[in-house]
Amino acid sequence: MESLGDILRRITARNISKTTNGDGVRLPDSEPAGEDCPRCKGIGWVTRRVHIGHPDFGQAVPCTCQETADSGNRAAALRRYSNLGALSRITFATTDLEGRLPDAAAHQMFSQGVTIAARFAEDPQGWLVLTGPSGSGKTHLAVAIANRCIERDQTAFFIVAADLLDHLRAAYSPDNPVSYDELFEQVRNVPVLVLDDLSMTNATPWAQEKLFQVINHRYNNALPTVVTVRGPLQRLDDSLRTRLEGTDGTATVVQLGNFNSRLVLGIGEVRPEMLQRMTFKNFDTLGGPGASPQDQESLDRVMHTAQSFAAEPEGWLLLSGPRGCGKTHLAVAIAGVRLDKGSQVFFAFVPTLLDHLRATFSPDSPVGYDELFEQINSVPLLVLDDLGAESSTVWAEEKLYQIVVHRHEARLPTVITTASTLDELEDTKSRIASRLVDGMVVDWQPITAPNYRDQRRRS
What we know:
Structural class: alpha/beta
Number of domains: 2
Radius of gyration: 28 Å
Number of strands: 12
Largest sheet: 5 strands, parallel
CATH architecture of the largest domain: 3-Layer(aba) Sandwich
Number of helices: 19
Shape: elongated
CATH topology of the largest domain: Rossmann fold
Distance between the termini: 84 Å
Strand content: 5-15%
Helix content: 40-55%
Strand order of the largest sheet: 4-5-6-3-7
CATH superfamily of the largest domain: P-loop containing nucleotide triphosphate hydrolases
CATH class of the largest domain: Alpha Beta
């Protein structure tokens, strides 16, 4: 039986593609094959021929060649088989314990994940499932586990789920030198399988069935398996999710970072200079020269309302008024208070947000549309700045409406700023406006003060 590493090298030679893992990293080319053991073909393990139901059915055992091979040759064979290539450089020793995400909560989650992954790598038992947003370090830890297994003379195989499916499809070709059954059998029974970027998004029924067969076989036979999943497990098919969650205690699920897709796309965060400049402390309720007593009263009233909302967000806060009157300042001040309390906030200029949502449909996007859209819908506090400034296309209108409806019905804290009046919104965005006038959920706070920036120029 030919080794899985050689099988994939031969398939890939005829099906060259730019292969990436779940974090958008291009996988390296495999190393050239050497002379293999005639019994295990360089794998280092074999499966016993026993009947179904036997305790050893489906279990991998070391090949006899491993008894005579020196440690250097064993390590070289295991590394060549592993499909890791240049990823062999990734180890626990070279891992930054804080990870790549910038927030403190993600640092703690990643540090805990490193501890759990390192413990698993020393004695692989059961399943380890790593979840989290793109860039959270899932693939890094999974690769580090595989490399540690090799250091311990244990066979491990790493592959991206999408690549596995491509190789299985290629094995159906009549001129392919490797049979589908041969390839599938090795993937199912490898002693330690690392399956990267498992996803059911846009998966065909055939792809779903193949992935389920691999996962179900390894689950039923308690074969050590590491799986990485972008996003929450709830997005997966129920049959897959129940195996990954391991309700019988065989699986450990580790979340690396909160599902903040914005960290990858560079949206949703309030710029530090805005947080420093736009606070409640430096909000000018006098409105500058030319502001009427009524204008000053509206600024004072809205500021106190915003402070109360920031202390205990509940329902929606709608800030309306002319451009430059202080709406965004107050929205940022609210976000700053919540961030200081450790809460998650998604802050976005509406036209830019829609541009990013469109960009997620690109095949090159590191984050899928569903992942980003789900986070916008579920984040504890959403701040939508300048509603009405976006281009009024049917697509944009529909996306905004879906966000508004979800958060309105769930009563999730939301702050919206707009330079439009409610009458104008009812004319241009009637469906959204119908939610904004709901006094049971939305606290509408109009600001009558004129543009601060114009007043400063006149002074």
